[in-house]
């Protein structure tokens, strides 16, 4: 579920704030940071899943060739408060480990 509110409408944002789940926000922030770094969209075979347990987050990701001949997987663990940074770190690590070549062959 997603709810949008105008940034300037503090009253509405405050009224809706109880709906925000911190663990879900941290997980989606990590996933979006990873996808944003890789410029992933619906046509690119990349995936990411983040799971928050307590103060910790685990982020798992995959980059694959269109035909599945090359598949790159990796995981990073850390503090959930560092979700965005960890998502970006994992993206950079995977690009350097061959992900850049996989994506270049697709795009």
Automatic annotation (TrEMBL):
GO molecular function, one term: hydroxymethylbilane synthase activity
Segments forming domain Porphobilinogen deaminase C-terminal: 29-95
A GO cellular component annotation in the UniProt record: cytoplasm
GO biological process, one term: heme biosynthetic process
InterPro entries attached to this UniProt entry: HemC (IPR000860), Porphobilin_deaminase_cofac_BS (IPR022419), Porphobilinogen_deaminase_C (IPR022418), Porphobilinogen_deaminase_C_sf (IPR036803)
Pfam families: Porphobil_deamC
Protein name: Porphobilinogen deaminase
